[in-house]
Amino acid sequence: MALVEGLSITQTMTVTKKDTAIYHGSGKLEVYATPAMVAFMENTAVACIDKDMAKGTDSVGIQIDTKHNKATKLGATVTCTAKLVKVDGKKLSFEIEASDEGGNIGNAVHVRYIIDPVKFMSRL
Fold this sequence. Notes:
It comes from Paralabilibaculum antarcticum. This protein has 124 residues and is an alpha+beta fold. Helices cover 21% and strands 43% of the residues.
């Protein structure tokens, strides 16, 4: 299959102690941490394209512009939807939304590039 604009996926997770601001060092409260939300958003973008990537390729994230709109409590369910909105050669652009039972908690615009993992790792 090919990567086409409009691909989307939705994933859910439950906020645990390992997802909290106090655990990540990004605050002192047991609420869903911004770094955890960003990681879940990026993971959802990867899941969106994974099955349609050409064999022998991978993708790397190079930009994420995120807004964390609302706190989410420990034990809550977070739902994240990523949509591939633009394919420009190897450049992939996503719109991502996260929500909990109370509604929207965050939004992001995320850019990934398709890479050859062997060449990529050989340059490090």
